[in-house]
Design brief:
This protein is an alpha+beta fold. The chain is elongated, with a radius of gyration of 20 Å. Bound molecules: zinc ion.
Amino acid sequence: MRRFRFVKWVLRPDAEPDAPPITHRFRCIALDEGDDECGAHSAEFADPGRAQEWAFGHWRANPDHTGFVEVVERPWVMWMDGPA
Ligand SMILES: [Zn+2]
């Protein structure tokens, strides 16, 4: 007879040393005359300040582009959390 051990799994942010880094990216959401989003975006940075620097640079080059969204990538992992 086969026996199965049931365990409880939880989904949690992955803070292990080998986890991928949390990254930050800014995207410009300014609309053009045709209501299309500009869509220009920064690279992904572990340092949110670097992504914000990109937004300042984009705004300086395009003074009417004042709206942005921040896209954050945070690693999560399924974690075995003891018996069910
Ligand atoms: Zn823009």
